[in-house]
Structures are given as C-alpha cells and as structure tokens.
Amino acid sequence: MGCFLVLFALISPRLALFVTLVFTDWVGDALNGWVLPVLGFFLLPWTTLAYIVMWQITPGVAGFEWFIVVLAFFVDLGSYARYSSSRASRA
User: Which listed site, 10, 47, 62, 87, has its alpha carbon 20 to 30 Å from 29?
Assistant: First the structure.
C-alpha cells in the first residue's frame, strides 16, 4: 500500500487521502472523529497526509516525525502562496 500511496500523493495529496480513507483504516487510527479529516482534506492536505503516515510508523507522532509534519505544513503554505501570487499577477 505504501508505494501506491506515494504515487497517488505525487498526483494529488487529496487523491492519496481519499484512497487512504477508502482502502485502509489509517485515518481512523490517527484522527478521531470526522471534523479533522474533512478540514485537513480541504485546507491542509499535505499536512494531514504526513500526519497520518507518521502515525503509522509509530503510534503517536514524536521526534523527527514532527519535522516531517511541519515540512508538509510549509508545503501547504507554499502552495497557497503560489496560488495567491499567480492570481495577483493575472489581475
């Protein structure tokens, strides 16, 4: 499942989150309820995906795993900044 998840993530992090939700129970293990997965899907897909994958390495995210999650957060912020700058240049 890991290789397919990486391939789907390269296409789209939201696609990888959807495939992870449908075919595994990783999302339910890492995140309780439905609010955080839905918000993560729409607002911070890379961060949510990184958190779910890091949770699968060891139950609970600790140490270097937080670095990966924070790095994914900056990737999400970078995608918003890139979208904002391209939108501003069109106007």
Answer: 10
Q: How many domains does the chain have?
A: 1
Locate 35 and state its tokens.
């609010």
Q: What's the pTM?
A: 0.86
Question: Three-state secondary structure along 31-87?
Answer: CCCCHHHHHHHHCCHHHHHHHHHHHHHCCCCCCHHHHHHHHHHHHHHHHHHHHHHHH
Place of tokens 């390269």: 10
Write out pLDDT tens, residues 15-55: 999 999 999 999 999 998 999 999 999 999 999 999 999 99
The alpha-carbon radius of gyration of the chain (Å, integer) is 14
